[in-house]
Amino acid sequence: MSVESPADKQNNREPDVTPGSLYLVATPIGNLADITQRAVEVLGTVDMIAAEDTRHSQRLLSHLGIRSKLLAYHEHNEDRMTPRLLDDLLAGSSIALISDAGTPLISDPGYRLVSQAHDRGVTVVPVPGVCAAIAALSAAGLATDSFTFEGFPPAKQGARLHYLERLATQQRTMIFYVSCHRIIETLKDMLAVFGGTRRLAFARELTKTFETIKRAELSELIEWVENDENQRKGEIVLIVEGKVDDAKDAGQVDHYLTVLLSELPVKQAVKLVVKMTGENKNDIYKRALELKGA
Ligand code: SAM
Prior knowledge:
This protein is α/β, with parallel strands linked by helices and 294 residues long.
């Protein structure tokens, strides 16, 4: 007799859709192959799909051979549609919410619906997949142990500068969505507030033909974007390094120097610490002499 393990059960199961539940289904941000198998199953099984832009989503659904009923749910009809969708859910319909790309609610509509669904006792089920913020963060090569998602900076410069100033001392890695039409001015405002040596990663057109990921210091990145108009096209995520804790940094330099000075001549120890930390050579040399003297 063969015994079905939980994994077998999982692999052979029927699409996991429960009447009266709200599914938040992530869709690709460029490469259609990034749709998950579970997303396809859920989208093909629910009673209806609420989509930000039905014409845009229809292309994805046709590509997947899905014919579930499609209706519009976006920021301009949220007020009117939220109660209607909740009534349908409470009457037993299963509904999937999708946005134009990526994970619904992440700088996309749906917050009101999900919040009220919880209030009314509707089961809310995430069907996870791509999110541009997380895809960019994973490829940025900047600290990932602690980060904040900042969404879109304000479009107007005064408000944007004010908003960036509030983030100037943030030590966590910050994730921004930036319109390509405002990329230069946003980078210049970041330069004014964060300084030219702040590192960041520029992630453009992720999962698409012209995918570009570049990590640099702010001043270098601005020059690069200004000199290549292609970098001012398409969809962009900026991952900005948090403010470096100077005290922590100084402690680390001292630690490296102390260990190396116990084994090596000053010149060699300094050379290695400069390589390891990227700090200024003269500063490290001065500190090495201080430590040696002490
Ligand atoms: N909900 C989406 C998600 O999960 O990523 C984000 C929607 S938000 C309205 C659109 C913004 O996401 C774009 O302006 C851009 O900053 C970012 N984005 C979306 N697709 C992208 C891609 N393929 N490459 C880089 N950024 C992308």
